[in-house]
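This section describes the prediction task in plain terms. A model, or a person checking by hand, is given the sequence of a single protein chain and must write out its three-dimensional structure as a string of tokens. No templates, partner chains or ligands are provided. The sample shown here is typical of the held-out split.
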Amino acid sequence: MELDGELWGGRGTFSTTVSVVKSQGEDKRWKGLKYMIFDAPKLNKPFEERMKMIKDYLASHNAPYASVSFN
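The expected answer:
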């Protein structure tokens, strides 16, 4: 499933998030980032169904660093 989203470190932490991403290594700060999912447009279903599919997938898999960006 192809997802559309972005890495997010929290409000007001853009420069820190960029620094972590640029580190490209075993930076412990990676654990402070989440992949905030906006959509899965290639599922070719209505938006609400796509969001439900993503939420169901995340609920049934261990994905502590991924989250749907809104409910």
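For orientation: The domain at 4-21+31-68 is CATH 3.30.470.30 (D-amino Acid Aminotransferase; Chain A, domain 1).
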